[in-house]
């Protein structure tokens, strides 16, 4: 099925909307979460997000009501809703050694910034995975810039920056009980095991965007 311009523009607006509402990035659970939210198939949600289909009028009304935007904006881009992002802001790209001081409000001088949508809080920051120094989850690229939001509530299957003892990791969260999370870490024998996160092993920030 050919991708038409109207379908592509709808997918761009829908992805913009989901970005603002802190949905996980593409290929990291966005399609699954959207399909569950509107009770449609995984393939159907993927078609919406990838510019291959536009929902029915009834479903457009449901989407508009859920996100408080007009159907005209969803279909045509007319009458943008005030709730949509109004612009971009620059947030700092910080090194590994700057993370904890930054989160404590002690670091203010940065050499690099990244422009992102203004939906983020003042405490959002970027980690350049190319600089190394982190144990990344195998699903994450080490050639990307990772945007983190400390004020976002952690969720199952979301990626997060975590501190375990004195080490920092970027791992996928696994919710084993409501509000309680674990991550998979490699042990000394090279096999994977679950590490329960507690007050001493904390979630510092949730990943909200990946930039290549």
Explain what this protein looks like in three dimensions.
The chain has 212 residues and is α+β, with helices and mostly antiparallel strands. The chain contains six helices and eleven strands. About 3% of the residues have low confidence.
Mean pLDDT: 83
Question: How many DSSP-defined strands?
Answer: 11
- Percent of residues in β-strands: 25-35%
Tell me the number of helical segments per DSSP (H or I, 4 or more residues long): 6
Q: Order of strands across the widest beta sheet?
A: 3-5-11-6-7-4
Full CATH superfamily name of the largest domain: Umud Fragment, subunit A
How many structural domains can be distinguished in the coordinates?
2
Instruction: Please state the overall shape, judged from the principal axes of the Cα atoms.
Output: globular
Task: Produce the secondary structure layout.
Layout: H1 5-20, H2 30-37, H3 42-49, H4 57-67, H5 71-76, E1 88-92, H6 99-103, E2 113-117, E3 125-128, E4 135-136, E5 145-149, E6 159-164, E7 167-172, E8 174-177, E9 180-186, E10 192-196, E11 201-211
Parallel strand pairs: 4-7
Antiparallel strand pairs: 1-2, 3-5, 5-11, 6-7, 6-11, 8-9, 9-10
Task: Provide tags for this entry.
alpha+beta; 434 Repressor (Amino-terminal Domain); Umud Fragment, subunit A; 2 domains; 6-stranded mixed beta sheet; 3-stranded antiparallel beta sheet; 11 strands; globular
């Amino acid at each position: 099925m050919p991708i038409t311009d109207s379908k592509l523009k709808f997918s761009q607006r829908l992805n913009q909307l989901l970005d603002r509402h802190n949905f996980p990035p593409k290929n990291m659970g966005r399609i699954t979460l959207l399909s569950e939210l509107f009770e449609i198939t995984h393939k159907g949600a993927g078609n919406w997000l990838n510019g291959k289909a536009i929902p029915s009028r009834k479903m457009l009304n449901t989407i508009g009501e859920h996100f408080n935007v007009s159907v005209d904006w969803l279909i045509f881009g007319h009458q943008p809703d005030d709730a949509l992002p109004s612009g971009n802001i620059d947030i700092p790209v910080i090194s590994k050694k700057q993370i904890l001081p930054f989160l404590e409000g002690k670091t203010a001088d940065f050499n690099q910034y990244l422009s992102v949508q203004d939906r983020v809080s003042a405490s959002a920051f970027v980690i350049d995975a190319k600089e190394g120094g982190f144990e990344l989850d195998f699903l994450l690229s080490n050639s990307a810039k990772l945007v983190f939001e400390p004020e976002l509530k952690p969720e199952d299957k979301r990626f997060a920056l975590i501190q375990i003892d004195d080490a920092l990791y970027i791992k996928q969260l696994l919710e084993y009980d409501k509000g309680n999370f674990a991550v998979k870490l490699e042990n000394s024998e090279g096999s994977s095991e679950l590490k329960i996160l507690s007050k001493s092993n904390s979630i510092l920030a949730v990943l909200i965007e990946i930039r290549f």
